[in-house]
Design goal:
single chain
């Protein structure tokens, strides 16, 4: 598992993405659909329509990383998009839970002090 700093933001692309795309296709999706900078150092997460595959795209300062995961059985529990929304911001813990098979909609964050970023 990758470890990112507290300043690294994780953006989940809501809806389905054609995961036949590689570096350039996903780079363009980040710029056009998510309206973000792909070389910002943040992590961008995409899933296919069946939610059986995901890809992560991120810049480490010297180049782009493209990581993928394919489930042999089952599906990822992808968050539902609000109307007009194209992205959802996650914490590193929420990403780990999503990759571990947990349903983020069925969990809740406990209230405690958290400094606004």
């Amino acid at each position: 598992m990758f470890v990112w700093s507290a300043a690294t933001r994780i953006y989940l692309a809501l809806g389905a993405t054609d995961l036949r795309q590689g570096f350039d296709g996903l780079y363009a999706l980040v710029r056009q659909r998510l309206e973000l900078d792909p070389v910002s150092g943040h992590v961008f997460v995409f899933a296919n329509r069946r939610r059986s595959r995901i890809k992560l795209l991120f810049w480490d300062g010297s180049g782009l990383w493209l990581c993928s995961k394919r489930l042999e059985r089952g599906r990822f529990r992808w968050p539902v998009s609000a109307e007009g929304e194209s992205k959802l911001r996650l914490s590193a813990e929420e990403l780990a839970a999503l990759l571990g098979g947990l349903d983020l909609a069925a969990t809740r964050r406990r209230a405690w002090f958290r400094r606004a970023v």
